[in-house]
Amino acid sequence: MFKYTICEPLNPNIVDKGTISKEDFIQVLNEFPWLEMLNEQVTADESRIFYSPSLELVNTHSNHALAISIIEPNQFYIFYKGPKVITKRKWFKSVEIFEPDYLSERLDQTEKDMRDAFSALLNNDLTELESRWG
Description:
Elements: E1 2-7, E2 15-20, H1 22-31, H2 34-43, E3 54-59, E4 65-72, E5 75-90, E6 93-109, H3 111-122, H4 126-133
Antiparallel strand pairs: 1-2, 1-3, 3-4, 4-5, 5-6
């Protein structure tokens, strides 16, 4: 099962849409008004803008998540949240640290990339998520 939220440019509140099945989310994604929301953002007075048009999906079983924003037509910003072991420098040595909610981001992603990312999350393809957006 999944849950999803929407960020609308002129709405100060994140809209929690609740739980959703894989099949129903695919329909939401296919009908999501990316360009209409982007146009609303571009034409609005800057002081009225709260968010870029965004869609967030969380796998409620694994807690892996995607938050994707459109910033220009066919240009998306993809945030991927999932567990990851990262290497940090401490003093004069490298230390591996487990981050349960590591957040990575990728700019300049296409609509195909956006759809691939959601498809990977919906199909629990964590290898694909990690290799392309982790």
